[in-house]
Amino acid sequence: MVNAAQRGRPGALSALRHRDFAFFWWAALISNAANWMQQFTVPFLMFDMTGSNTWVGAAAFTMLIPAVFLAPVAGVVADRFARQKVMVITLAVSTVACAGFAALQMTAQLTPWRIIGLNLVMGVALGIQASSWLALVPLLVPSSSLLSAIRLNSAQFTASRAIGPLTGAGLLALVGPGSVFVTNAVTYGLLMVVIATMRPRRLAPPAGQRIRAFLAAGVAYVRRRSSLRQAILTGFVMAYFGGALLHLAAGLASEDYGVGETGLAGLITAAGVGSVIGSALIIGYGDRFDRSALARLGLALYASASLLAVATTSYPVGLTGYFLSGVAHVCIAISLNSAVQSQVAEEMRGRTMSLYVMGIFGGWPTGALVGGWLGDHLGLRLVFGINGIVLALYLVSVIVRWEGLRALDSNVDTMDRAPRDQLGTPGSTA
Question: From 37, 111, 324, 385, which residue has the greatest number of CB atoms within 10 Å?
Answer without folding.
Answer: 37
